[in-house]
Amino acid sequence: MYEIKTTKLLKNVMKDYFSSFMSARKIAWCTSVGPAELLRSFGFEVYFPENHGALLGATRQAGDFIPSTVALGYSGDICSYLTSDIGAYLNKKTPLAEHYGLNGIPKPDLIVYNTNQCREVQDWFTWFAREFKCPAVGIFPPRHVEEAGEAEIKDVAAQFKAIIPSCEEASGKKFDIDHFRETLLMSKEATLLWKEVLATSKNTPAPLSFFDGTIHMGPIVVLRGTQAAKDYYTALLAELREKISSEKGFLEKEKSRIYWDGMPIWGKLRTLSELFVQNNSAVVASTYCNSWVFDAFDENDPFVSSAKAYTEIFINRSENAKMRMLKELSEEFRIDGMIFHNAKTCFNNSNANFGLPLRFYRETGIPVLVVEGDLCDLRFFSEGQSITKIETFIEQLESIRVTH
Ligand code: SF4
Questions:
Q1: CA of 126 relative to ligand 1 center, distance in Å
Q2: What average pLDDT score do residues 332-356 get?
Q3: Which ligand 1 atom is the nearest neighbour of the CA of 117?
Q4: Residue 350, class by beta-carbon neighbours within 10 Å (0-12 exposed, 13-18 middle, 19+ buried)?
Q5: What's the topology of domain 23-174?
Q6: How many angstroms does the Cα of residue 145 sit away from the middle of ligand 1?
Q7: Secondary structure (DSSP) of 107-123
Q8: Alpha carbon nearest to ligand 1 atom 2, residue
Q9: Which ligand 1 atom is the nearest neighbour of the CA of 82?
Q10: pLDDT of res. 403
Q11: For a designed S-S bond to 229, which of 44, 107, 219, 404 qualifies (C-beta 3.0 to 4.6 A apart)?
Q12: Model pTM greater than 0.90?
């Protein structure tokens, strides 16, 4: 049976990360593509509510909690990370208790968000700021940029600098530019390792599927700027390279190679992973896992490079820029078919609403499929119908391969 042994190490890394909150001096909350490095440079332990949302989805508890948030007047159609996370808090429940022995979610001393991904994080994080009577500060970059221009980057870099006084006050520490540079360098090294980890699946047979990637991405999301993340991806990369040399992949024979665009369907990862494997189809690349590759980080220019890296993320780009990026990745990974997951409660991270799939097909000739679903709210995912659609799509890809 195919196995990635480093997964055992991952369990310890995540356990250590969550245990650190029990003895933390100061805790900051941060959005998943927020200024984690800057926060860490002040000595905060950094907690990411989106990671908690994903856990609620993966453990299929989200559906139990969403109604409590809807009862507060929030729509059931908005971000199911937000609705499940607030709902879990209202019900005093968290999978962190069972999995990592925490009494509850870590209590923040400071809440920081970046609306580079969506406005929802502002509403979500300020709800908790009111609840915990805790300061909250935001970074508001321009949205949906073709490329971020010099003036825009300058503005965002100034916003990064503007949160320093709040960080100093909440942490009780003075800002130290050298420490920020070191943290950013460490984050850059980890992110480049993560990029190489993902790139291993350019090989056939591919050693890492998109579904594996959603598990192994934990440290690059929650431990950016730490030695632990660097060490983890060094170990994972070594194992995957070893698999490439011995020609071991998660599929013995790949009959097609697929790109997954959009969010994972957390509560159905295993079902979907098995479905593709049974059909000898390798899901080898994704927009989602690539979202934590930050090439632009430069410790010599930490504010400007952080502003650039975090403003030019995929989710914050124009449709033209997204098209370019998807074309590049599909070429690099030799993709036969593209699946767009249209997540009902996250239009921000769903790219099937403005004609992109059809344009992509017309310009590349690569067949596309749109799957309706959601990140956490499984009421929006019709399993039987989606399986049929995916199996038919894979058959279609195989027949195209044979024809050519
Ligand atoms: S990007 Fe989507 S899933 Fe993520 S926080 Fe925003 S609305 Fe929620």
A1: 15
A2: 97
A3: 1
A4: buried
A5: Rossmann fold (3.40.50)
A6: 18
A7: PPSEEEEETTS-SHHHH
A8: 346
A9: 8
A10: 60
A11: 219
A12: yes
